Structures are given as C-alpha cells and as structure tokens.
C-alpha cells in the first residue's frame, strides 16, 4: 500500500500563503516523490535523474522533492510501470518493457528497425513520438515525459561470433520482449528472458553465455568482467523513457506540473549530451580491461530478422512500422 503524501492542502493555508507562487509555504513539508531505475549510480541514467530531481526542486521553490532510487531498488522495469499505474512509484526510467503494456512499443524494439541514431531522433522528437506518448497515457495511465537517447545495443559473449551461424547454441539473455526473443531466435541464438539484475551472476556461473545492451550499460554493470567479446552488431538504436504516474501528476498544482515538464526537457538535453561521451569512455575501459572488440558485417544479421519484423509489424503496428521505414534517408 502506498503511503499518503504528507503535505498540507493549499486550502488550509490560503490566506497566509496568498503570495506564494506554488501555493504552499516554505515552512510546509515538500511533496516527496520517488523515481526508480535499474541502472547503477555511475550510469548516465542516474546522473540525469539526479539532475532532473534538482531541477524539479529548484523550479518548484522546494514544494516538490524527487528522491532517486537506482539499481532496481524499487523493482525491475515491469515492477516500476505497474507501480506507476497504481501510484506507488511516481517516476521511472524504463526501456523496452512498455510493449507489455501498450502494443505499439513492440514495433520500436524490432532489431534493425532504425538505421542509425539520427533516424531514431527523427521519430522520437517529431510528431509521431509525441502522438505515441499521448496514446500511452490514454492506454496505461502512465505519462510519457521525455525520450532519452541510448547507445546502440551490442552483443557481448564468451564465444567468438562473426555471423549468425556462430550464434547456434549460444544462450543469450534478453529482456522479456517478444521482438528480442523472436529476433535473436531468428539469428540462431537461444534467447532467455531474464531481469537485468540477474545477468552478471548468470554469466559468471554459465547459466547464459551472452547478453546484449548498449556499451555504457554493459560497462557500468561490469558485465565485461565475465565476457570475452564485444560484437558490434548495432542491432537496436533505442531509448529510455522518463515516465510519470498520472495519478501523481494530477496531485500536483498546475505550476508544479509545468515545472516537472520543464525539468524533464532540460534533463533530456543534459542526458543526451553526456551519453555519447560515456559510451566512448566505457568502450575504452572495456578494451583496456581485456575485452576483444569484433567488427562484423551486419547485413546477414539484418536479413535474418526481416521475416520476424514483418510478422510483428502486422501484429502490433503496421502503420507505425511503415512510418518509421519511410523516414529512412
């Protein structure tokens, strides 16, 4: 059960606080909101989350305070979304699993859907991306605030992989997303859905042989300590979404709501600026610590998943899929 927020209603202080911009005096307790994510404190997600929290507090003159909980403290991705739906989690950074709550997100997870980062940005920050967020709110009760960019997803493995044929028998951890499971199966691997918090120990004990994530994500979790190869597949150009419980949003005053929206936009700019640098630094660290980087011809991997992409596009959003394909350069 969620604890009630412990702020004093505006109506109870109306006369004394008539001159206050946010309707609540400095002597009142702030509205304490929680933001959860699955990454470590060294990750760009966390740094930008802290920036977002600071901006919210500043822009609301302290009437709203956001506390950040990294490393799956408030639960895994799916737990966070379900928490926002019932109001036990106020904000979350979530990647991928939104397809379990609103079908069109499954299209965005298709391997080799986007040809590069520019293609992804054209979609996310255009009218189609805004429409997706509006539809998400209506379908789930979770409000999309901003899309943050991520580095391309790359494969790490303990077996040398240079083509799809080399993936036969490789047990690869994937998120619990149909496009990931079916895509890697089509490329020849044996996909195993698993929460990210279990990946390091599972690689260490041989339960799985491989995993796939953006380089910075992999490095910040020290996954490279139990993997030999970094295979540059560029199979997904993805995003992480800053989401908010609409139950929480509606509890805020209009000025506080506007402050949250402004803080989210500024935090997105902050995160997008640092993520590329962090990717470069993470790659160098992994190479320095003994991981071997493997460049591959991506075309055979791309060809292997085309039937999966067409089938899932028909199932979850042919119009969205064709719109994104039409944005290719």
UniProtKB/TrEMBL annotation:
InterPro entries in the record: DctP_fam, TRAP_DctP, TRAP_DctP_sf
Annotated compartments: Cell envelope
Keyword list, A-Z: Receptor, Signal, Transport
CDD domains: PBP2_TRAP_Siap_TeaA_like (cd13603)
NCBIfam families named in the record: dctP, TRAP_S1
Record family assignment: Belongs to the bacterial solute-binding protein 7 family.
Name of the protein in question: Tripartite ATP-independent transporter DctP family solute receptor
């Amino acid at each position: 059960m969620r604890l009630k927020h412990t702020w004093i209603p505006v109506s109870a202080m109306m006369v004394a606080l008539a001159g206050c911009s946010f309707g609540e005096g400095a002597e009142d307790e702030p509205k304490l909101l929680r933001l959860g994510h699955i990454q470590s404190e060294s990750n760009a997600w966390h740094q930008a989350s802290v920036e977002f929290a600071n901006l919210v507090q500043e822009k609301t003159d302290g009437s709203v305070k956001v506390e950040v909980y990294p490393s799956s403290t408030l639960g895994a991705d799916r737990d966070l979304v379900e928490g926002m739906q019932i109001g036990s989690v106020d904000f979350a950074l979530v990647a991928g699993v939104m397809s379990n709550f609103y079908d069109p997100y499954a299209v965005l997870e298709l391997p080799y859907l986007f040809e590069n980062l520019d293609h992804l940005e054209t979609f996310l920050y255009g009218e189609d991306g805004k429409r997706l967020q509006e539809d998400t709110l209506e379908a789930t009760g979770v409000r999309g605030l901003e899309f943050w960019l991520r580095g391309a997803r790359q494969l790490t493995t303990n077996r040398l992989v240079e083509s799809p044929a080399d993936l036969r028998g490789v047990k690869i951890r994937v998120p619990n997303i149909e496009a990931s499971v079916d895509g890697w199966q089509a490329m020849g691997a044996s996909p195993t859905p698993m929460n990210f918090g279990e990946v390091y120990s599972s690689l260490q004990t041989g339960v799985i042989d491989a995993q796939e994530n953006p380089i910075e994500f992999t490095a910040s979790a020290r996954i490279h300590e139990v993997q030999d190869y970094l295979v540059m597949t560029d199979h997904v150009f993805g995003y992480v979404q800053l989401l908010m419980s609409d139950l929480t949003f509606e509890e805020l005053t209009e000025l506080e709501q506007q402050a949250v929206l402004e803080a989210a936009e500024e935090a997105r700019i902050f995160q997008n600026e640092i993520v590329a640098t962090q990717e470069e630094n993470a790659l160098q660290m992994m190479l320095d610590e003994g991981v071997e980087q493997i460049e591959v011809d991506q075309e055979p991997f791309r060809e292997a998943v085309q039937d999966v992409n067409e089938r899932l596009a028909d199932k979850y959003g042919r119009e969205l899929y064709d719109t994104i394909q039409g944005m290719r350069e």
